[in-house]
C-alpha cells in the first residue's frame, strides 16, 4: 500500500510539475473535424508543428468532441495561462465572445472569425471566394466537356461561399459552362465521408463533369481518389493536395491557415489583435502550382489566371462574396 | 428456475462489467505508452473532484437521463426507439421557436412553455414511425433511424435558410434573450449558501430530469396505462386477448418516448447553448440506448447509468485537455464500457448466475441433510 501511495504521489508530483512547466505554452483548439482532417485543421496543426520544430518549444492542444467543450476548453486553457490560445472555425465565435473578455491579458487567435468586437482577439478570415474564383477559372479552362463539378461538405454558408466564388470564376472563363454542385450530407459526418464523396463524384461524372472541386474536408479524399480512378481532374482544398494523385489533381485552392497559425505562435504573447482578412494580395488564399500539376496547367491557362488574380488585387474584378450578400449571383444553392 | 438475488443482478453484474471494461481500457492506455493510473486519477478528479467537474458531469447526465428514459419507455412496450437523436433535434427546434417567438417576462414561464414545446415536437416526430409501425407494420427500428436523418436535414435547412440571423455566417439561430436564461446550479444553490462552480453548464433542467424519472416510474409501475404498456411488451397476443388495443399502446408509448427525448432540448439548447446550433444533440440519443440497457429500463438504474456516462464524457474531456491521449482512444474507452455493460451483459450474468445457484445448492444441501 505504501509503495502504491509512493507511486501515486510521484505521478501527482510529475503531473503538477508538468502543469507548472506548461504555464506559458500556447494552446490550439481543433474543431470537431479533428487535427488529421487532411485540410482545415490539419493545416493549423502543420503550422504549429513547424513552429514547434523551429523553436524547440511545445504547445497544448485539444480536439473537440462536443459542443459543450468549446467554452470549457477555452476557459481551461485561458485559466491555465496558455497564451496565445488558438481556435479553429466559425463555431468558436460565440464561446469566444463570452470567454475572451474574462481573460483580458490572454491573446486569442480566431481562425475563420471576423465579426467579433473583443479587443484581445486576433480574428483572421480568408477571402475564400477569391481563391475559389481562380480555381473555378482553371476548372472551366481545363474542362473539355464544358461541365464542372463542386462537392461541398454540408450546406452551410461557409461552403456556399466557396462554391459561389468557384461558380463565378468558371463562368468568367467560359460563359457557357455548366456547373453541377452537390452537398455531402446534413450531419457532421459529412466532413469525413470519402465513400459518399466518391459516389457524388461518379454521379457528377455521369452528368458530364470532367473537373470536380471538393470543399468537404476529409470527404474530399474520396472525391480526389475517384476522379483519379475515373480519369478526370479534381481540385483540392485548404492544403496543397496536388501530391495525393500526381498528375491527376488539376490544382488546390490554398487557404494558408498554417501561415496564420505559425505567425501567431511566433508572435506569442505580443500577438497583434484586430480583424484581418487575408486575400490574394497577402497570399492568404491562392492556387497551388508545383511539380505535380505543372503538366496540367498550360501557359495560356496560367496567364489567364494570373491576370485575373492581378485584376482582383487591383480591384478591377470584384468577386461577389456570399458572406456579404447572403446570396450568390452565379449559382443558386 | 433458480435466480440470483436482485441486488447481485442490479449491482454486482454492472460493477463486474465496469471492472472488466476498466481493465481493458487500462491495457489500451498502457499500449500507447501512457500511465493508466494517472489517467484514471485525472478522469476522477476532473469529473468528480470539484463542483466544476460535477457541473459538467451532471450536465451530460441530464441529457442522458432524458434519452435513456425515452428508450426505456418504448422498450417496455417492446418497441426499440432508436430515433431519440431526431426527436431531441426536433425538441430543440421547438424550444428555439418558442424562446425566440415571444418576449418572455420570466424564465419560469419560458421553461414551462419550453417543456411543453420540446415534448410536443419530439412526440410528433415519433408519431409517424409509431403510426407506420402500428398500422402498416413498418419496423420501428428502420423508420426511427431514418427519421434521425430527416431531422438532421430539416434542422440544417431551417438553420441555414430560415432561423439564421442576417449577416451571421454561423449556421445557428439567434441567441435567446436574457429573460429566458434558466438558472444554472450555481445560481440555484448560491442563495442557500452552497458554493457551486459558475462556469459549469448544469442547470435547473436536472431537476426536471429527476422529476421525469419519478413520473416514468409512476407511469410504468403504478398506473393502468403502464400496466398495459408492460403487458403489451411482454406478449402482444396475450395483451390483445385481454382487450388491450395494440395500435393505441404502440402510439401512446412512442409519443411518451418521443416527448421524453424531445425534453432533452431544455438542457442542451435552453440551458447550455442558449441558441440552436447545428450539432445540438451530438449523439445523446444513441447514448440513451446504452444508458437504458445498463439501467435495466428502470428510472433509478437510468439515473445511475446516466451519471456514469456523464462522468465518462467529462472525464474524457479532461483527458483530452491535459494528456496526449488522442480523442479516438477516449471514444474507445467509452465504447468498451458500452460493450461490456450493454452488449456483453450475459457474459458476466450467466456465469455469475451459475455461481450463485451452485453456492446456494451447496449451502442448502448442507443445512437440510
From TrEMBL, chain A:
GO cellular component: plasma membrane
Domain of life: Bacteria
Domain (ABC transporter substrate-binding protein PnrA-like) ranges: 30-319
Predominant location category: membrane
Leader sequence segment: 1-24
Membrane topology listed for this record: Lipid-anchor
Cell compartment(s), UniProt: Cell membrane
Keyword list, A-Z: Cell membrane, Lipoprotein, Membrane, Signal
Family matches, as PANTHER family: ABC TRANSPORTER GUANOSINE-BINDING PROTEIN NUPN, TRANSCRIPTIONAL ACTIVATOR PROTEIN MED
Family that this chain belongs to: Belongs to the BMP lipoprotein family.
Protein's recorded name: Nucleoside-binding protein
Lineage summary: Bacteria, Pseudomonadati, Pseudomonadota, Alphaproteobacteria, Rhodobacterales
TrEMBL record, chain B:
GO molecular function, one term: transmembrane transporter activity
Main location: membrane
InterPro entries tied to this protein: ABC_transp_permease
Compartmental location: Cell membrane
Entry annotated with the keyword Transmembrane: yes
Membrane is among the record's keywords: yes
Membrane topology of the entry: Multi-pass membrane protein
GO cellular component annotations of the record: plasma membrane
Pfam families according to UniProt: BPD_transp_2 (PF02653)
Listed transmembrane segments: 12-33, 53-75, 87-104, 110-128, 140-160, 199-220, 249-270, 276-295, 302-323, 329-352
Alphabetic keyword roster: Cell membrane, Membrane, Transmembrane, Transmembrane helix
Protein name: Nucleoside ABC transporter membrane protein
Organism: Poseidonocella sedimentorum
Amino acid at each position: 500500500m505504501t509503495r502504491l501511495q509512493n507511486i501515486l504521489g510521484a505521478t501527482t508530483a510529475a503531473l503538477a510539475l508538468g502543469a507548472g512547466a506548461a504555464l506559458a505554452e500556447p494552446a490550439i483548439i481543433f474543431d470537431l473535424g479533428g487535427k488529421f482532417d487532411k485540410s482545415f485543421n490539419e493545416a493549423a496543426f502543420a503550422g504549429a508543428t513547424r513552429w514547434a520544430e523551429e523553436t524547440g518549444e511545445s504547445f497544448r492542444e485539444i480536439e473537440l468532441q462536443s459542443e459543450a467543450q468549446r467554452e470549457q476548453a477555452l476557459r481551461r486553457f485561458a485559466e491555465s495561462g496558455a497564451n496565445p490560445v488558438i481556435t479553429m472555425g466559425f463555431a468558436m465565435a460565440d464561446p469566444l465572445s463570452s470567454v475572451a473578455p474574462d481573460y483580458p491579458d490572454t491573446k486569442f487567435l480566431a481562425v475563420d472569425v471576423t465579426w467579433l468586437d473583443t479587443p484581445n482577439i486576433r480574428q483572421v478570415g480568408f477571402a475564400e471566394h477569391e481563391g475559389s474564383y481562380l480555381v473555378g477559372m482553371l476548372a472551366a479552362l481545363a474542362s473539355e466537356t464544358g461541365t464542372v463539378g463542386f462537392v461541398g461538405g454540408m450546406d452551410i454558408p461557409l461552403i456556399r461561399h466557396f462554391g459561389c466564388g468557384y461558380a463565378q470564376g468558371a463562368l468568367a472563363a467560359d460563359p457557357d459552362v455548366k456547373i453541377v454542385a452537390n452537398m455531402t450530407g446534413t450531419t457532421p459526418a459529412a466532413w469525413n465521408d470519402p465513400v459518399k464523396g466518391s459516389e457524388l463524384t461518379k454521379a457528377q461524372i455521369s452528368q458530364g463533369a470532367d473537373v470536380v472541386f471538393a470543399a468537404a474536408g476529409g470527404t474530399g479524399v474520396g472525391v480526389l481518389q475517384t476522379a483519379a480512378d475515373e480519369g478526370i481532374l479534381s481540385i483540392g482544398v485548404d492544403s496543397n493536395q496536388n501530391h495525393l494523385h500526381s498528375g491527376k489533381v488539376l490544382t488546390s485552392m490554398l487557404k494558408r491557415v498554417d501561415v496564420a497559425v505559425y505567425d501567431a505562435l511566433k508572435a506569442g504573447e505580443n500577438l497583434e489583435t484586430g480583424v484581418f482578412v487575408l486575400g490574394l494580395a497577402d497570399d492568404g488564399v491562392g492556387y497551388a502550382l508545383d511539380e505535380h500539376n505543372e503538366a496540367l496547367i498550360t501557359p495560356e491557362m496560367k496567364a489567364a489566371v494570373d491576370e485575373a488574380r492581378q485584376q482582383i488585387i487591383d480591384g478591377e474584378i470584384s468577386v461577389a462574396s456570399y458572406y456579404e450578400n447572403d446570396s450568390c449571383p452565379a449559382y443558386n444553392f | 428456475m433458480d435466480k440470483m438475488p436482485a441486488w447481485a443482478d442490479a449491482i454486482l453484474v454492472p460493477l463486474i462489467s465496469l471492472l472488466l471494461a476498466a481493465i481493458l481500457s487500462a491495457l489500451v492506455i498502457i499500449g500507447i505508452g501512457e500511465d493508466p493510473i494517472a489517467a484514471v486519477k485525472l478522469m476522477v478528479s476532473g469529473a468528480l473532484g470539484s463542483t466544476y467537474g460535477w457541473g459538467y458531469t451532471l450536465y451530460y447526465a441530464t441529457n442522458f437521463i432524458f434519452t435513456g428514459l425515452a428508450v426505456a419507455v418504448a422498450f417496455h412496450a417492446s418497441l426499440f426507439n432508436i430515433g431519440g437523436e431526431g426527436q431531441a433535434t426536433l425538441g430543440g427546434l421547438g424550444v428555439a421557436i418558442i424562446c425566440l417567438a415571444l418576449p418572455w417576462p420570466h424564465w419560469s414561464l419560458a421553461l414551462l412553455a419550453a417543456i411543453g414545446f420540446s415534448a410536443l415536437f419530439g412526440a410528433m416526430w415519433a408519431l409517424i414511425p409509431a403510426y407506420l409501425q402500428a398500422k402498416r407494420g413498418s419496423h420501428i427500428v428502420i423508420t426511427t433511424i431514418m427519421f434521425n436523418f430527416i431531422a438532421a436535414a430539416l434542422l440544417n435547412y431551417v438553420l441555414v435558410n430560415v432561423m439564421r440571423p442576417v449577416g451571421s455566417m454561423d449556421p445557428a439561430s439567434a441567441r435567446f434573450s436574457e429573460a429566458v436564461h434558466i438558472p444554472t446550479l450555481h445560481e440555484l444553490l448560491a442563495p442557500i449558501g452552497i458554493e457551486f462552480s459558475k462556469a459549469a453548464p448544469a442547470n435547473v433542467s436536472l431537476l426536471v430530469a429527476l422529476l421525469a424519472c419519478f413520473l416514468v416510474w409512476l407511469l410504468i409501475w403504478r398506473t393502468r396505462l403502464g400496466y398495459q404498456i408492460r403487458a403489451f411488451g411482454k406478449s402482444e397476443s396475450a395483451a390483445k386477448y385481454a382487450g388491450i388495443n395494440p395500435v393505441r399502446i404502440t402510439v401512446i408509448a412512442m409519443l411518451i418516448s418521443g416527448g421524453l427525448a424531445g425534453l432533452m432540448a431544455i438542457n442542451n439548447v435552453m440551458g447550455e447553448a442558449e441558441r440552436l446550433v447545428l450539432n445540438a444533440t451530438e449523439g445523446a440519443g444513441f447514448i440513451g440506448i446504452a444508458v437504458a440497457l445498463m439501467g435495466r429500463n428502470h428510472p433509478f438504474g437510468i439515473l445511475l447509468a446516466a451519471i456514469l456516462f456523464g462522468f465518462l464524457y467529462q472525464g474524457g474531456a479532461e483527458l483530452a485537455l491535459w494528456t496526449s491521449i488522442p480523442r479516438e482512444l477516449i471514444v474507445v474507452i467509452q465504447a468498451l464500457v458500452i460493450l461490456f455493460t450493454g452488449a456483453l451483459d450475459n457474459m458476466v450474468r450467466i456465469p455469475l448466475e451459475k455461481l450463485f445457484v451452485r453456492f446456494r445448492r451447496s449451502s442448502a444441501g448442507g443445512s437440510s441433510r
